[in-house]
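Letters spell out the chain; backbone shape is given numerically. Take this protein:
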Amino acid sequence: MKTGKLAFFIFFIVNLAVALSCYFYPVTRDEFYYLDGYFNPFIEYYNSYFHINPRLGQFFTNVVSRVPVLEVMFGLLVFNGFFAAIYLNLFQRFPNFRSSSDVCRYLISAAFFIFLINYFGEMFFYTPFSGNYTFTHIFYLFFVFLYTEYYVFKQDDFLKRIPPVLLVLFGIMTGMFNEHVPPVLLLMSFLAAGYYTFSNRKLPHTKLIVFPVSIFIGYLILFFAPANRIKEKSVGRFTFDIVFQDYLLNFSKILKHYFYYNQELMITVVLSAVLFIILRKKMHLDKRFFLSIAIYFSFASITLFIVAISPLLGTRLLFFSTSLIILSLLMFFKELQIPVRWQKLFFGGSFVFLLVYFCISVFATFNARENYENVTSEILEKKRTGDDVKLKNSFNYFTPFLGNQNRRFFLENGMEYIDRDPSTDTSVELKVKHHYQLKSLMTE
C-alpha cells in the first residue's frame, strides 16, 4: 500500500478508535454527577458560575457528558481540533485532509505528541478534563498562532479573514476558560505590542488589540465569579494569599510531575538539545525559528510560574506548557534535513505506534466499561433485596498486563470510589447512593 493511501487508512482507524474509546470510557470521578437526568445546560452553568465551577468549559462539559453520542462527537472534535491547532502553528496553515502529505504530517505530529505525554487518555476521553482543559487549549493555541504569525512571521493574512465580532466572541470565551493561561496571553500581548509600537512607532494591527482586550473582559467575568470565593474558602486560601514557602513547594511539585509523568518528554528535550548543539551549523536556521522557540518557551514557563500559585496541582494544569514544549520539539525536528529513506522509516514507525496505541486504547476502555457495567449491575441486583448494598467487587478500570501504562488511558483505577466503611462516604459513593436511592454502600 502506498504511503498516501496508508495515511488515509490510518487517519480513519485513529478517528474510529478515538470514537470507540470515548464511547467505552468508563464513568470516572466527576462523571458520576452526570448519572442523573438531563438538566437545562444554561441553568446548570448559571448554578456552576455562582456556586461550583465558573469556567466556561464547564458549560460544554455539562452539555455532552450525559449523552454518549455527544461525548463521541465532542471527543472527535477535541482530538482533531487540537492537532489541527498544533499543525497550524507548525506550518502556518490548517491541514488539508484531502492531501496525503498533509495527513502524513498531521499523523506524525499526533504520534509524536501522544508518545511524549503519559496522560493522553484523561485529557481527551474524560469529559470533565477534555471540556474544561483540552477543548480550551484549541483556543489558546490559536491565539499563539496569531501572535507568532504577526510578530514573528510578519504576516496578517489569517488575521484579516477573521470577522471582528467573531474575534471578540473568541476573546471573551478564551478569557473565561481558565484562571492560569489567559494572564499569560495578556502579558505576552502587552510585551509584544509595546515592543512593536516602540520599534515601528505605530500600533500593531487593530485586531491584535481587540483580541487581548476581549480576553481581559472574559477573564474579569471569570475572576469575579462568586464560585471562586466559595472555592477559596473550601481550600482555605485566597487568590492573593501566597506564602513563599508554599509557592516554592508547589513549584518543586511541578518539576516532580514532569519527571514522573513525562519522562519520555524530558529525555527527548535533553537529546534534542544535544542534537541541536551538534547540528546547529548545518541546519541554517533563521531568526524566525529561534524567536518562535523563545516565544513558546516564554508562554510555557510563565504559565508554570502562575500555576504554582494554585493550591491544587495536577497534570491538567501543566497541559498548556507541556503542549508548547512538544510543539517546540516538533518545530525543531521539522527543520532537520532527514534523508528520504529515514523519513519513510519515521512515517512507518509513527503509523505503527498510532495503530498499537489506539488498539490498546479501545481494548482497555472496553474492559473498563465492562467492569463499570458489572459493578452497577450488582448494585441493581442487590437493591432488589434492600437499600443497604454490600458489593463483592468494586470498580477497577485498569488492565493488569498494562501496568503503569494504564495511566496513558485512564485518570485513575476507581478502586477507591467505594470503601468498606458504611458510615463514611466518598464523593463518588454519595453520587451513586443518590442515583440508586441507597441507604448505604460498601465493599466486602
Q: What stands out?
A: Strands lie at 388-391, 440-443. The chain has two domains: 3-356, 360-443. The CA atoms of residues 196 and 204 lie 7 Å apart.
